[in-house]
Amino acid sequence: QVQLVESGGGSAQAGDSLRLSCAASRVAFVTYVMAWFRQAPGKDREFVGYISPSGASTYYADSVKGRFTISRDNVKNTASLQMSSLKPEDTAIYYCAAGLSSRAYSYWGQGTQVTVSS
Fold first, then answer.
1. Structure confidence at residue 4 as a pLDDT band (50, 70, 90)
2. What is the DSSP string of 43-74?
3. For 40-67, what is each residue's pLDDT tens digit?
4. How far is CA 48 from CA 28, 63, 115, in A?
5. Dihedral sign computed on CA atoms, order 45, 92, 85, 105
6. What confidence category does residue 2 fall into, taking pLDDT thresholds of 50, 70 and 90?
7. Is residue 53 packed enough to be buried (19+ CB in 10 Å), middle (13-18) or exposed (0-12)?
8. How much helix, strand and coil, in percent to the nearest 5, is found in the chain?
């Protein structure tokens, strides 16, 4: 059973930075695209961005481009989401996901709450 465990969420002020981590186990991590999604209260889940298996390519939603950075460590089996210039609208539960392509994700973490106040 693949496990993805997020950590690093919490509360922040607008303009602050936070870093989320996703630790993967029981998976051939280096073969998976790793992505981040988020879901705000009362809203649908929203794609944030993904990183290719090698880490050479990343792609971001327009809403976070230039503020968020996804990275990965294929030795430690971790993926990270560095969030800067946070806005109140970034408040959501953040999920990491793993998939063999960027179009479909088979495995999901349990989520970590990020709350940004103005």
1. very high
2. S--EEEEEE-TTSS-EEE-TTTTTTEEEEEET
3. 999 999 999 999 999 999 999 999 999 9
4. 23, 8, 16
5. negative
6. confident
7. middle
8. 5, 55, 40
Q: How far, in Å, CA of 14 to CA of 17, rounded? A: 9
Burial class (CB in 10 A: 0-12, 13-18, 19+), 39: middle
d(CA 5, CA 9): 12
Neighbouring C-beta atoms of residue 21, cutoff 10 Å: 18
Whole-number mean pLDDT of the chain?
96
Residue 103, amino acid:
R
